Amino acid sequence: MSAVIINGNEIREGILADLREEVAALKAKHGVVPGLVTIMLGEHPASVSYVSLKIKTAKGLGFNEIQVSLPENISETDLLETIEKYNRDDRVHGILVQLPLPKHISEQKVINAIRPEKDVDGFHPVNVGKTLIGDTTGFRPCTPAGILEMIIRSGINTSGAEVVVVGRSNIVGKPIAAMMMQKGPGGDATVTVVHTRTKDLSYHCRRADILIVAAGVPGLVKSSWIKPGACVIDVGVNRVGEKKDDKTGRIIPLLRGDVDFEEAREIAGWITPVPGGVGPMTIAMLMSNTVRSLKRSLLLI
Ligand code: NAP
Q: Does the annotation mark 174 as catalytic?
């Protein structure tokens, strides 16, 4: 039987609709809207399209969206000063700096410079630590938060489940592993994290009730590695070529995930497509973090 396709676009729309109502209610009652600052250095094509989608989404929700475009050769000191300016601005509830940064700037220094209460990307060590210890007052990073939201909204049981995470990056693999091993809803799983030094990758994948793949290797996971009925979350976004968009006629990148989708869907119980799976969730969770930040500043949560 074919797997249930977990539709990230549909789940995202539901989350955004709820947020839109919440933002309108906050504005009506408290006279404030969420303020989100996006700082971008230079014009990396992938970042430009991602940032413009963030801006469009934030504006659609009624946020005060501030886009700061800085030259790629800006000094580290000047960038840190810009961040500090928004740290001190009460109208701003979320600050994010689009990564990756040019080589002359320390990514960790920049992340550390954002006040943890405005770090809606969830990358500051304070928020990373809170995610690890299960302190819900922090911000969880957006992609793993989106993955967990998809799993929960799809009604997939995590308690006692064998979860295997392929990849140990700070933005996906480590935090999703930390989140799913917590006590409580969406947690209580038995988590294994595998990576390039793992001896037998397919052995671990075959044990998984929930398989989360974030390696960045197109088609890495074969259908024979999937336990029948398992939930497969494919985080990978790999450009494998170009194609003509059916609607606009424009040339767009051809994307492929880390899982062999067409064959895997015949074995899995649930599966996320690429594109249209995890990708759309990341921005939704960023918006959700920003609304939470505003509510915290108003002492509502
Ligand atoms: P990353 O920092 O490059 O980490 C990749 C991880 O996968 C590493 O831990 C690496 O192991 C492991 N890995 C790579 N090849 C492997 C293999 N052949 N066997 C086993 N493990 C392997 O990547 P990332 O930032 O986590 O991103 C992963 C993928 O998710 C990318 O395709 C990225 O574009 C995508 N992504 C999507 C979203 C989204 O949809 N919103 C967000 C973030 C990332 P080692 O540690 O041993 O090197």
A: no
The pair phi, psi for residue 228, each rounded to 5°, is -55, 130
Token digits of residue 46? 């992938």
Ligand 1 site, residue 279, Cβ cutoff 6 A: yes
Cβ(143) to ligand 1 under 6 A? yes
Q: Answer yes or no: 103 catalytic.
A: no
- In the chain the domains, ranked by start, together with CATH numbers, are 30-116 (3.40.50.10860), 140-280 (3.40.50.720)
Between CA 18 and CA 268 the distance in angstroms is 30
For 102, phi then psi, to 5°, come to -60, 155
- Residue whose entry in the numeric block shows the structure tokens 């505003």: 294
In 155-278, which residue ranges form alpha helices assigned H by DSSP? Answer: 173-180, 201-206, 261-264
Taking the C-alpha atoms of residue 184 and residue 230, their distance in angstroms, rounded to an integer, is 21
Looking from the CA of residue 142, the nearest atom of ligand 1 is 41
pTM above 0.90, yes or no: yes
Q: Which atom of ligand 1 is nearest to the CA of 235?
A: 30
Give the Å distance between the CA of 233 and the centre of ligand 1: 13
Q: Going by C-beta distance under 8 Å and a sequence separation of 6 or more, which residues neighbour residue 192? A: 162, 163, 164, 165, 204, 207, 208
Catalytic annotation, pick one of 18, 27, 29, 54: 54
The answer to whether 218 touches 254, Cβ cutoff 8 Å, is no
Q: 161-212 pLDDT, tens per residue?
A: 999 999 999 999 999 999 999 999 999 999 999 999 999 999 999 999 999 9
Give the residue, by CA position, lying nearest to ligand 1 atom 2. 169
First-to-final CA distance of the chain: 44
181, two tokens: 């091993």
